[in-house]
Amino acid sequence: MNPFPRPHRFDVVIAAVGLAGGLLMWALGLFSGGSGLLRWGWTLVPLTAMAALELLRRTRPRIALLGGTAAVVADQFTSGNLATVLMFTDVVYAAVLYGTPAAARRIPVTTGLITVTTTIGYLAWFRTPQALLLGIVTGLVCFAPATTGALVRNHRDAAEAATLRAEQTALLAEMDRAQAVVAERARMARELHDMVANHLSAIAIHSTAALSLDEPATTRRALTVIRENSVDGLAEMRRLIGLLRDSGAATEPAAAPTLAGLDALVAQARTNGASSGLDFTLRDERPAGAALPAPVELAAYRIVQESLTNALKHASPGTVTAALAHTGRALTVEVSSPYGDGERPGPRAPGSGAGLVGMRERAVLLGGTFASGPEPSEQGREIWWVRAELPVQEGESQR
């Protein structure tokens, strides 16, 4: 490590200007009125030393201050040069501005004590009010530049801290934006899957039946179901596209489905599952007139919709039951379907597993719980259960 690194070009300019000014005053015979104990030529020694120390004002402020103090004291034993004193004030200022935090705290205090002590000493020695002027000069030479450096440093540190806070705020805002984008994409993915999967599953099942059975009546019924589900799927897609295009829309679409549409949803599933030997029933045990928050209703509707879609894809012949219960603090959604008991008479549609993930995400986002899996029933058949418990605040449930 170089003990004396290359000086800053601004420091070189200060040193050159100070040295040139001091030489000019010396040549013209302008002196600041030192004690004159040394000949007039000795004035150039403190001047040259101070100019050299100016080169270290930014890179080695402590060395510059110590050497500058010695140089300005030595200048008092000569005829004195005003340029030497002025450069010393700049060294004191730079020592506070560019020095360590500890030095920036100590130097103003030290120079203040020196000013007070010098003033008292002059008054005690000369015993005249004019001695106060010497104290003022001492304060202007050492204490004033030190306090100026402290003020400038405080403002600089405050500006750097504000810049750092602004950068951190911008970084946090960018992280929040990225998280919001990811959350919005996940929400739209759930909406797209839940809205379209039911219709596409019915289309796949009935198109397979139409292709595999050479019966005009069966083919006509299958094509009718395919058309109905295609039209409904397109309507749902248009609604989602409209939501995506409307940047000022609310978090949830204005026409979001509610639990009042479960009867139509079950009826549609009953029509779609007739060829597979499936029957669908709805058991709504909620108190009459009980209202639920819109996010809870939407989540419950989507969970029932996806469960019925999964039953259309994978359930064995039998009855699929969707049950709702509202306890005041939570809405419970349960859907049961026959599982692994016999072969289906109709075709099956492939699944991706995204439906269970989406249902779990909907429940967790509302602070609820979700569980699914096979369990034996009282009749000895294996049943696939889907259970979701969605918390409902008491104040909101009465709206």
3D architecture notes:
The chain is an alpha+beta fold and 399 residues long. Helices cover 62% and strands 11% of the residues. The chain contains eleven helices and five strands, in the order H-H-H-H-H-H-H-H-E-H-E-E-H-E-E-H. The chain is rod-shaped and about 125 Å long. Residues 249-254 and 394-399 have low confidence and may be disordered.
Keywords, separated by commas or semicolons:
399 residues; alpha+beta; five-stranded mixed sheet; 5 strands; 62% helix; rod-shaped
Concise synopsis of the structure shown:
This protein has 399 residues and is of the alpha+beta class. Helix content is 62%, strand content 11%.
Annotate the secondary structure layout:
Elements: H1 9-28, H2 44-54, H3 61-75, H4 82-98, H5 101-126, H6 131-212, H7 216-245, H8 262-272, E1 278-284, H9 294-314, E2 318-326, E3 330-338, H10 354-365, E4 369-376, E5 382-391, H11 394-397
Parallel strand pairs: 1-2
Antiparallel strand pairs: 2-3, 3-5, 4-5
Helix pairs in contact: 1-2, 1-4, 2-3, 2-4, 3-4, 4-5, 4-6, 5-6, 6-7, 6-9, 6-10, 8-9, 9-10
